[in-house]
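Troubleshooting: if your tokenizer reports a length mismatch, compare against these two reference records.
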Amino acid sequence: MQTLLFEPGVQNIADEVTGPITYQPAVISSATAADWFAALREQGDWHASTRMMYERLVGVPRLHCHYAITDPQLPKLLHDALAVVKQHVDAPFNSIGLNFYRDEHDSVAPHNDKLHELVSHQPIVLLSLGATRTMLIQRKQPPRLKTELELEAGSLLLMGWNAQLHYDHSIPKLRQPVGPRISVAFRVRPERDIKAW
């Protein structure tokens, strides 16, 4: 199983059997996190999208963009972010996906990543930038334990491949105002998917 390679300050959300899911705050400084957020907000190739829900087309409540690691258009700071992540997680990442939560109205519904879009037994790692948002992590089977995790700027969240079988995760809408946040997700995708980009 893939876990964060350092121990001090790591919070274990799920064990090695159903996960792992681990959280590490302050992997980069608050100043670096702020600089990276500002740059990605301006440089990201942001897109809005739609999806079918309840038999009607609705807007996805966040912006997003995706890069292959080999993409010539990959912003330099994402190379720097990848280098930081690989200091802590030993995985052959080849894909970076970004979600831009503009305010408290943007969200992502409970879900797990689609396993056919991931290389088996490779982790997903999220680097958080910008405002702190709450992620809800809930077991799919009884007891349906729920964890509310505050994702701070500069933190890393690792979700093992196996965790997608056992847990859903979400970023809920909020009633109170909150600033914008960018989630930078590092994944290992099958080569067929990378080439399709």
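Reference record two:
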Amino acid sequence: MARMIGAKAIFVALTALFVSSSAALTAPAAALSMRTGAVTSQPIGHYEFCQSNRSECAAGQRDPGAAKVTAFGWKTIREINAAVNRDIAPMTDKELFGTDEHWTYPDGAGDCEDFVLLKRRKLIEQGFAPADLLITVVRKPDGEGHAVLTLRTTQGDFILDNLENDVRHWTETPYRYLKRQASFHPGRWVSIENGDAVMVSSVGK
């Protein structure tokens, strides 16, 4: 009887190990893309940007679904990310405009939102769909707010960041994801429901 109980215990332990390992293997696949929720508040800086650039925030944007990016497309994405990071000097809105928030296309200098706007425009000029290029608000590990550009692809969501020249999958970044532009309307924003899931897959990397 003792042997049977011991064998059963080993079987249960191995089964539990297999289940937990399987969950760990499937978790990244489930988080390939951010899971968006309800419409939420639009950042004031983006609202004011839309007032000055109404055509960029108007309804009627077509959402063709996540892009299937070719090798040439990835080369273009990486080149634009690195070039904007190189050519634009990081400066705060307070330094440039004397205000806390002023979203605009940068002219030689800008803050994180300005980097995002310029990268988005350059990628649209290269043929990428606006619905796949979404301004995204995140929180850095130190609690500071930050903006990045999310690229939707059939391989998942990837991040263009002025603090990083590499284009990384969103789960390979250290951020907590809060909200982003809606793929169905460039003037609307939606919450990100699994924004903390990124922290799990980033541990130990």
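Descriptive notes for reference record two:
- Confidence is low (pLDDT under 50) at residues 1-27, 200-205.
- Helices lie at 2-30, 44-52, 71-87, 93-97, 112-125, 197-202.
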